[in-house]
Amino acid sequence: MSPAAALDVSHLPDYAYDWALVDVETSGLIARRDRILSIAVLTFGPDGAQTGEYSTLLNPGCDPGPVHVHGLTEERLSGAPTFEQVAGRIGALLRDRVMVAHNAQFDYDFLAHEFARARLHLPVTQRLCTLALNRRVEPPSVGLSLASLAAHYGVPQTRAHDALDDTRVLAGIFRSSLAEAARLDVPLPLVPCPPRQDPQFAPNPPKTPCAYRNPGRLAPGGPLVQGMKVAITGETATSRAELVARSVAAGLNIMSSVSRHTSALVTNDSASGSAKARRAITEGVTVIDEQTFLKLLGDVRSGTSHENQALKKTPEAVAPAAPPVTQPAASPVMPTPSPAATATVADIADAVEVADVVDIADVVDVAEVAAVAAVADVPAPRRAETRRSIRPFGRRRVLVLGGTHEEASAARVRVVELGGAAAINLSASVTDVVLLPGGEHDRRMTRITALELPVHARGWLEAPATEPGDVPAQGGTATDVLPRGGVADLPTPVTTGPWHVSASWAQQTHCEIDVVTFVLDEDEQVSCDGDFVFYGAPESPDGALRLLCDGPTEQSVAVDLAALPPSVRRIAIAAAIDGAATFGDIGAVRVTLAPGIDAPAAVQATLDAATSERTLLLAEIYRRGPRWRFRAVGQGYDHGLEALVRGYGVDVE
Q: Are residue 115 and residue 157 in the same domain, yes or no?
């Protein structure tokens, strides 16, 4: 970015920062294991003028990894300095500046680990991801990769995967993205970065997954069966490590907590009053002592393997008739949904599998949806409904302002029924605005008027005209819009990289929202505490799931389906509010599914909870026979995160 082309935002306090733009090339994708091979840092002032530039190769002291990607061989790196030797200079460039990168959490995590290995403090207090910024801006580009955005913004790119060239490209993209954000009055997705000085901030080693299905409770006097869930509490004569090792070798599933699905609790003091003993008594779990358990370990009966169960194809030719649409009964696992939540055919679709034959909503052409996946070179999800009809809002993206929560929610539902997408923020992709009572006072109206966006009254949604031909598809691709309860099939076999499920909501200042994920077995329970992924443990032990914080109102979960063990039946993704606020205060939450971190969304849904919910089950990815499916759920609960966690079998201290 030349000084002449620099963007001066020094007069705009919300956008005026000192910036440090960063790109790293690495020996792999796992920060706790792999190393940085090259790094480039460009610094800019609030006026857009470049103030510094530094780049260097680094000798990682290990195999450089995918040379075919970055071209950095051991010979090229052998004479380069180590990271420890240049850490001070890099730190000086980062200090007192906002770190900017494309997929910034990746670069930040690698820098955090490298500084920790050097026993130095990473001087970054805030970061900004240009991916997250462009998700807010929503430019009409083919995708959000560095190359796609460079093409859209007209930034020349000469040497992809060269740290210095990529950083210069990033500078051009950031300049244009920042200008567009200022034009739209879009808040910057700045992420606070607390100190990370401990070199051991890494997940625990993964628990060996049990290969067998849970056969149920241990009958008094009966045998142990492979797959039984066993918990141990209190002092034992045999070392705990040996008990666990022998149990795992016999095919049992050792759990860290007790739930109604626990087969047996092993304890030498059932009256100890421990949390596990109390829960076992409450749930009626069989309790045995250590000696009895050791005897039973000598003759563990054969169980049913998850592999065999997963290969069984569930019949889908004829689905049973849908039961009456009523409020569902309380789940034996989960707490009762809030009274304000209402059930739909889609809510009960998983129980009766009507999603295959019942038209939950009109269908977008599968060929249009396939265009999204073609950009990322992967198969597209397939909508589970079977009927297609013409919908007048096929390319409209409508922002609803004003009204009560219920009125705005109903308007957004209507937009989706008409085939459009319901926006939650003003962005470059918004085509229309619906104004409900009070919406004229929304701070975004000034910018909407300046942008000359069409503004409609609520009645426009009742008598819509067919979409005009001059409404462009965003980047030439189409995103399948799901209603609440809508289902999309993921391609099989699972051969692609991680899918990304992202959640975003309107900018809030009075509360925080946390996205959490549960990896569940056939009992709708976690098999270990590590299967609960949240802000305090952002990665599952096996690396199959990872929570990414893209901004204060943007969080996503990367799900590598191919890395999941056969015992996994469902991945539940939820959001919980920290504090007294409810999702009625927050408004709608947008959920997207994309076949890559910078790929365009293949599926999206806008979910409105009712007024009182503090926890919202957003989406799930689940097995249906040999296929994985994605469902937009939108089920709210009045309770907080702790009750949700306990319901899925996580031991909460």
A: yes
